[in-house]
Amino acid sequence: MIRLLVTRVIPKTLLERFSLDYFQVTEYDFVSIAHCEPNETLQHHKVLVSSQNAVGSFDLSRNDVWCVGSKTREALEKTGVVVLKSFPSASEMAREAVKSGEPATYLCGSIRMPVVEDVYRSNQVELQVLVVYQTTTTPREFDTNWDAVLFFSPSGVQSFHERNDQTPLAICIGETTADCAQTYGHPIVLSRYKTKEAVVQTAVDYFTL
Questions:
Q1: 3-state SS string over the chain?
Q2: pLDDT per residue over 93-126, tens digit each?
Q3: What CATH number corresponds to the domain at position 107?
Q4: Fewest C-beta atoms under 10 Å: which of 44, 62, 113, 204?
């Protein structure tokens, strides 16, 4: 039996799409998300969004919006936002967005890897950072020897390691999450797409194909 730890609770209807007869799947939410009121208003026309959790914080219908991932794009478009460009990772988004030299506003959570900030700082381009949701780690210790852990955010990686030292295979939703997992010593498999479904599919394929 292949033991998988999923660090975000997955809808049952999604898991039922996969053949998991040879898997023991344990799910636990290692982070909790709560929306919060930002202490500033939008200062710039260009807006960067790296997570679905930031969607709905502002009316962005008149802004130039760039985002990370197809699911974030879908969520933005459902609110009437026209997304100019979407990217597979926050670092790629930042590197492309900064080329114009225009200042931008970054909508993000309280816990994150500073990849966007670092790109703008190194290029000396103004970036307004607005925290629009609070991320709280909810760590839990496990004694199980996992064959793989499925990670969906850097904060999930950090929360796991608050109480667990083991470093099994990490199947990660994106490059930023993978970079974080690698700092703890995990071997990495990167999901082809930035969705929960794709992460689960990657795990199934890895152990069965």
A1: CEEEEECCCCCHHHHCCCCCCCEEEEECCCEEEEECCCCCCCCCCEEEECCHHHCCCCCCCCCEEEEECHHHHHHHHHCCCCEEEEECCHHHHHHHHHHHCCCEEEEEECCCCCHHHHHHHHCCCCEEEEEEEEEEECCCCCCCCCCEEEECCHHHHHHHHCCCCCCCEEEECCHHHHHHHHHCCCCEEECCCCCHHHHHHHHHHHHHC
A2: 999 999 999 999 999 999 988 999 999 999 999 9
A3: 3.40.50.10090
A4: 62
pTM of the model: 0.85
Compute the distance between CA of residue 206 and CA of residue 190 in angstroms, rounded to an integer.
11
160 CA to centre of own chain: 15
